[in-house]
Specification:
Layout lengths: L21 E3 L5 E3 L6 H29 L6 H17 L11 H5 L4 H18 L7 E9 L8 E10 L5 H35 L3 H5 L6 E3 L2 E3 L7
Antiparallel strand pairs: 1-2, 3-4, 5-6
Helix pairs in contact: 1-2, 1-5, 2-4, 4-5
């Protein structure tokens, strides 16, 4: 079952809507929502968050692959690559979402995929995440005219030197890696947890489910929710 096929009415499925007291099903009928908690719920949220980052990375790599031979705007290419590389790297850094061991992911890659994965992580650490590195720097040069008839000194210029580049092969393999992680590790676990939570909730009465707290999220701008859904 694809993620898109998960029924909207399941109260524990994350939504991109503004936090609200009411949610809505596909027919526009109002649904109350309650926030769940616990180890399984946290793992489900983390899995879906990882899938979102992998999807973002895959879309970025795919977009760049379509532009790489047709676009002359290297700055746009760089912006797309940086965004995709960072979204990809986020899946393998330590933090609250680090619910899988690195070997769980890397063990399913073939030799070529593992080499490109390591390359992207290394380039992102040294080239994307830092403004100055061994892979990227500026050099200042004096320019000299080669024609003897002209004044020998022509001025000063700056050159950007970058040893981190992308290729069609690299992008294609990274797209495959994103899909592989999502399809073989994350989606099966999402559906497994989904079935466990679904079975548990079906055993509860409406009043028992209503005892779960309404969604309230602390943000840097204050506490959000419960709010009416914005039109």
């Amino acid at each position: 079952m694809a993620l898109e096929e998960v029924p909207v009415k399941k109260v524990f499925i994350p939504s991109s809507q503004h936090v609200s007291r009411l949610s809505y099903d596909r027919e526009g009928q109002p649904l109350e929502i309650r926030r769940l908690s616990g180890a399984l719920v946290d793992e489900l949220a983390n899995c879906i968050s990882l899938i979102a980052d992998l999807d973002g990375a895959r879309k970025g790599f795919s977009c760049l692959l379509s532009l790489i031979e047709s676009s002359d705007d290297t700055e746009i290419d760089r912006i797309i690559f940086d965004g995709a590389a960072i979204r990809y790297r986020r899946c393998f850094t330590t933090g609250v979402r680090n619910i899988f061991k690195l070997k769980d992911f890397l063990g399913i890659l073939n030799q070529e995929q593992r080499a490109f994965h390591d390359h992207i992580i290394d380039v992102t650490d040294k080239h994307v995440a830092h403004s100055v590195s061994d892979l990227e720097f500026q050099i200042i040069v004096a320019m000299i005219d080669t024609e003897e008839s002209k004044e020998y000194y022509s001025g000063i210029s700056a050159f950007s030197v970058s040893m981190a580049s992308t290729s069609g092969d690299l992008l294609s393999v990274m797209i495959d890696c994103c899909e592989k992680f999502k399809r073989e590790i994350l989606e099966p676990r999402v559906h497994q947890i989904y079935e466990q939570l679904d079975h548990y909730l079906q055993q509860l009465s409406r009043d028992e489910i209503r005892k779960f707290p309404e969604p309230v999220i602390d943000t840097p701008f204050g506490r959000t929710g419960p709010l009416q859904k914005r039109k």
